[in-house]
Amino acid sequence: MYQVTSQGYLDEQFCQIEDLQDEASPNFTEEVVSLFFKDSARLMTNIEQAMEKNPRDFNRWDAHMQQLKGSCYSIGASRMKNECTSFRNNCGDENAEGCMRSFQKVKREHGVLRQKLESYIQLLRQAGPAETATRPGCA
Fold first, then answer.
1. How many CB atoms lie within 10 A of CB 135?
2. Which residues form the HPt domain (predicted)?
3. 124: how many CB neighbours lie within 10 A of its CB?
4. Phi, psi of 62 (to 5 degrees)
5. Are 37 and 114 in contact (CB under 8 A)?
6. What is the rounded CA–CA span in Å between residue 82 and residue 23?
7. Distance from C-alpha of 74 to C-alpha of 67, rounded to nearest angstrom
8. pTM metric for this prediction
């Protein structure tokens, strides 16, 4: 996990999510991660569909991206969140080309984060509850 947080993929919010996991809810982190990816995939589909429509509705694009950015905040997906901000700035400038580039970066960051978190969840499953009590990268 240290690598994921030190590379800026996740921030302190993710550590706080992990801190909520205990014996009563041993799969809490995994459940939150799963919900994030389910929700974010749906939101990215909404954004893609909105971007395919004419005329361009930058307010709609921005509203959809604001929802995705909120999901990123909730899990601590900082690099994705930063790309969402870039997209929203491009919406404010009515820069369709910039929005397209930013959205590609959002999707790329989403894919990398999914890969890293799936690997991390696998490690958590293998380690078991006793070994997950101390996580590198989360103070």
1. 20
2. 31-116
3. 21
4. -65, -40
5. yes
6. 34
7. 11
8. 0.88
pLDDT digits (tens, 9 = 90+) for 47-85: 999 999 999 999 999 999 999 999 999 999 999 999 999
Amino acid code (one letter) for 32: V
Query: Pick from 96, 53, 88: which is nearest to 67 by CA?
Result: 88
- Write the DSSP assignment of 86-105 as a string of letters: HHHHHHHTT-HHHHHHHHHH
Q: Phi and psi for 133 in degrees, rounded to 5?
A: -65, -35
Which CATH number describes the domain made up of 2-127? 1.20.120.160
Tokens 């982190």 label which residue?
Answer: 29
Per-residue b/e over 63-88, b at no fewer than 16 CB within 10 Å?
ebbebbbebbebbbbbbbbbbbebbb
Helix orientation angle between 96-127 and 78-92, rounded to the nearest 10 degrees: 170
Of the candidates 124, 139, 115, the residue with the CA atom closest to the CA atom of residue 29: 124
Give the start-to-end residue ranges of the domains of the chain. 2-127
Query: Are 15 and 137 spatial neighbours (Cβ–Cβ below 8 Å)?
Result: yes
What pLDDT digit, counting tens, does each position of 29-47 carry? 999 999 999 999 999 999 9
